[in-house]
């Protein structure tokens, strides 16, 4: 490898990539896209362009917020189960089991229709500063999706925390690190790294769970596609475009996580 | 029995070097198993104390009690004249009563493990500067300069940006020694540092430890390498069944053992 120049390496990589079967696949994909563009109806697109962009933005926003908040909850949930005293481990375990054992749609509706109809009965809630937020649908969507992600990731993090070799933490203890430092510098980074491949998969699943928020009137990209169908009676074109959009977001997620994983060598001691 | 004021144990004034490690009447039980039955140990500055003994004799447990990685059941442990304050933990053992005290003491005891235990998510350089920067509060630039010097010293200068998983056991253990040296330890604790190594890699690690011993570092060393112990130790302790069966200078222990068990042990190990 060291003998070849950078340019030779690049062109070698390129010729390796452009193999006959790949060229055929690319041609088929191009033909599909082209025929879809020519033979299907896309005249509705300009009218719904702005709404679609807003929908994509909402989907990504909900995904990012719920994954971030969910992960922040998952760390203590996993830690409590892996190393906590029973009065912390048990509730964490119960939470994960209940959330993972019931459909997300059910949780979403329980929150939205249950809490959402309970809140207005209390005048002090209706008069509170939070009411303008609480009367909207998106807070319930964010809470439900966050709890769901937290429960699944809590389980993943439990395994990841438990999987960090004892010796790694013992070395930290032997060198006088405080419990918090041991957690922050050694235990958490190693657990996250162990969990990364699973986290990537769970995050893609989370993306595909976001359309559920359309059932409680949050207009994400899925809701936009439904709106197009209802307005114009065009069925396939919006759904195809929807599939493509989810695929692209998934691709970006997978690529991002792979970059993150590559930062540290996979062979953990 | 346990918590005794450190001030009652002033540094010795008998003309000998100060006592770096002092262990007195140490007991350790694992449930019903009585692993250490009243062991005492002393290492003065510059001394190299080797602890030998068969498997299950309690030698690793003794070493790990010095920095309370293992909680002793009872006994007195003093490091540089400062007694580790202990309190009962309710399960029959004693635990450090003052977290800050034990953390401060640990941070100046460079420990080297049998299985290296380098932090696998950090490069060698990051491993070596971790404790100086994040525990001892040394400036990162200074810590890096010192770490480079130490890695060069153990022959790993060019591996500074490599992760431990990509190194041989011998290289990992040498890096672990550099990590222990980086805290400028008053005493170094070696827990069977060559037991997990392939035979052809033992030599490179023993050479590094031997050099440190010859330069007058204070060490407590648990080892199976009898020839090495004879070479570098100033004092040898033979543990049998949780008790000190015999101790003395290496010439006496290896040359003219008194105890029948020690004779047998030396014969069996060759």
From TrEMBL, chain A:
Give the keywords, sorted. Cell inner membrane, Cell membrane, Membrane, Transmembrane, Transmembrane helix, Transport
Protein topology in the membrane: Multi-pass membrane protein
Task: List the subcellular locations.
Answer: Cell inner membrane; Cell membrane
User: Which GO annotations describe the biological process of this protein?
Assistant: amino acid transport
Q: Which domain of life is it from?
A: Bacteria
Enumerate the PROSITE patterns for this protein.
ABC_TM1
**InterPro entries, per database record:** AA_ABC_transptr_permease_3TM, ArtM/GltK/GlnP/TcyL/YhdX-like, MetI-like, MetI-like_sf
TM region positions = 20-39, 60-84, 104-125, 239-257
Q: Where is the ABC transmembrane type-1 domain?
A: 56-257
Q: What is its main location?
A: membrane
Pfam families under this entry? BPD_transp_1
- CDD domains recorded for this chain? TM_PBP2
Indicate the family of this protein.
Answer: Belongs to the binding-protein-dependent transport system permease family. HisMQ subfamily.
Concerning NCBIfam families, the annotation shows: HEQRo_perm_3TM
This protein's name:
ABC transporter permease
Source organism (scientific name): Aminobacter aminovorans
Automatic annotation (TrEMBL), chain B:
Cited PROSITE patterns: ABC_TRANSPORTER_1, ABC_TRANSPORTER_2
Q: Where in the cell is it found?
A: Cell membrane
Instruction: Report whether Cell membrane shows up as a keyword of the record.
Output: yes
**Gene Ontology terms, cellular component aspect?**
plasma membrane
Which molecular function GO terms apply here? ABC-type amino acid transporter activity; ATP binding; ATP hydrolysis activity
Describe its membrane topology. Peripheral membrane protein
Q: Which SUPFAM superfamilies match?
A: P-loop containing nucleoside triphosphate hydrolases
Gene3D superfamilies membership = P-loop containing nucleotide triphosphate hydrolases
First-listed, main subcellular location of the protein, grouped into a coarse class:
membrane
Q: Which family does it belong to?
A: Belongs to the ABC transporter superfamily.
Please report the name of this protein according to its UniProt entry. ABC transporter
List the source organism. Answer: Aminobacter aminovorans (Chelatobacter heintzii)
């Amino acid at each position: 490898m060291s003998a070849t120049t950078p340019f030779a390496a690049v062109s070698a990589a390129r010729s390796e990539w452009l193999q006959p079967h790949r060229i055929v696949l690319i041609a088929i994909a191009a033909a599909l896209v082209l025929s879809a563009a020519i033979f299907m109806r896309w005249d509705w697109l300009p009218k719904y362009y702005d709404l679609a962009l807003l929908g994509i933005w909402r989907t990504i926003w909900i995904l990012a917020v719920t994954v971030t908040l969910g992960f922040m909850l998952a760390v203590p949930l996993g830690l409590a189960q892996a190393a906590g005293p029973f009065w912390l481990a048990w509730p964490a375990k119960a939470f994960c089991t209940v959330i993972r054992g019931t459909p997300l749609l059910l949780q979403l509706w329980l929150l939205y229709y249950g809490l959402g109809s309970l809140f207005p009965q209390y005048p002090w809630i209706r008069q509170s500063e939070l009411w303008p937020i609480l009367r909207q649908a998106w807070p319930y969507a964010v809470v439900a999706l966050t709890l769901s992600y937290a429960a699944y990731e809590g389980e993943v993090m439990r395994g990841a925390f438990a999987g960090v070799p004892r010796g790694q933490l013992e070395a930290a203890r032997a060198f006088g690190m405080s419990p918090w430092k041991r957690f922050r510098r050694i235990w958490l980074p190693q657990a996250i790294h162990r969990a990364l491949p699973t986290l990537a998969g769970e995050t893609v699943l989370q993306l595909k769970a976001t359309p559920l928020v359309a059932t409680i009137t949050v207009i994400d990209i899925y809701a936009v596609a439904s709106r197009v169908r209802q307005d114009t009676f065009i069925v396939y074109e919006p759904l195809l475009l929807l599939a493509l959009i989810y695929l692209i977001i998934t691709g970006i997620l997978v690529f991002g996580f792979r970059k993150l994983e590559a930062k540290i060598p996979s062979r953990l001691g | 029995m346990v918590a005794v004021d450190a001030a009652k144990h002033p540094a010795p004034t008998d003309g000998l070097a100060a006592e770096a490690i002092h262990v007195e009447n140490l007991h350790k039980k694992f449930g019903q198993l009585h692993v250490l039955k009243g062991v005492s140990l002393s290492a003065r500055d510059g001394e190299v104390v080797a602890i030998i003994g068969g498997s299950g004799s309690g030698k690793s447990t003794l070493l790990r009690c010095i920095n309370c990685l293992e909680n002793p059941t009872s006994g007195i442990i003093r490091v540089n004249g400062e007694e580790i304050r202990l309190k009962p933990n309710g399960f029959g053992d004693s635990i450090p009563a003052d977290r800050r005290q034990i953390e401060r003491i640990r941070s100046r005891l460079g420990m080297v493990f049998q299985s290296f235990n380098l932090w696998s998510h950090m490069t060698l350089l990051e491993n070596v500067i971790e404790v100086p920067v994040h525990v001892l509060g040394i400036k990162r630039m200074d810590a890096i300069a010192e770490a480079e010097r130490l890695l060069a010293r153990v022959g790993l200068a060019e591996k500074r940006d490599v992760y431990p998983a990509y190194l041989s056991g011998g290289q990992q253990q040498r890096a672990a020694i550099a990590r222990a040296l980086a805290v400028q330890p008053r005493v170094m604790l070696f827990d069977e540092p060559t037991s997990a190594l392939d035979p052809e890699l033992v030599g490179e690690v023993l050479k590094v430890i031997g050099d440190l011993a010859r330069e007058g570092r204070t060490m407590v060393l648990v080892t199976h390498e009898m020839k090495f112990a004879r070479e570098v130790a100033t004092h040898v302790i033979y543990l049998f069944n949780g008790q000190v069966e015999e101790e003395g200078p290496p010439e006496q222990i290896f040359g003219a053992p008194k105890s029948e068990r020690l004779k047998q042990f030396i014969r069996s190990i060759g």
